[in-house]
Structure prediction request, 227 residues.
Amino acid sequence: IVVDSLGKIYVTDRNNDRVLVYSSTGVYLCEISSSSGLNKPDGIYVSKTGFVYVCDSNNDRVVGFNNLFFKMFEIIGFNKPSGVIMDNEGKLWVVDTNNGKIKVYSIPEKQLGTTKSFMSASVLSSPDNFMFGNVYSYPNPAKQTNPTIHIECGTADKIEIKIYNIAGELVHKTTLTGPPKLIRGKLAYEYEWDVKNVASGVYIYYVYAEKSGEEPIKVVKKLAIIR
Prediction:
């Protein structure tokens, strides 16, 4: 059970696979029903902007609804999540019960919007899945613009990017730290390479990611720059 900033009361009705919403005086208003796919909902939290986060326990996910109760996204990779709360910095903390972990997500609610036009839901992978997903640069080729390197690998302690020309000479390097961000429905890191003084040609970029307790992972990709 949770109360939002307007005094509305939200109750997870586990056995009926729904969330009930009441006024501050206890009058029934509406519900997030089982048609949304909820199966034994457990923990629930309502943010200051009206987003509703529900631990969908039997589906091993957390579902995010906007202030009109349209499903916006789901975060997968749990085992019976049971509690959820958002801190003052906008980070979402989830109790992953059967995995014995607490997982933290950065959720940019302003980017997700709050209206029906954002009805289609995105699926987010768990930040504990330390492996490469999509790694690419865009635009590629980059014609008179900076390329951005997009990296999906869960949460890393450090990501090192090294960029070489076709002769094998190092032309640029950088290091990324911190949690991934929600980018077009995916938890990912991104880096925009300033190529103002870089010649046209094909470049090879090497991505090396480290995380405590895990084997380092690496991948090599190509991008092109056209002047």
The helical segments are 109-112. The first helix runs from residue 109 to 112. The chain has two domains: 2-124, 135-226.
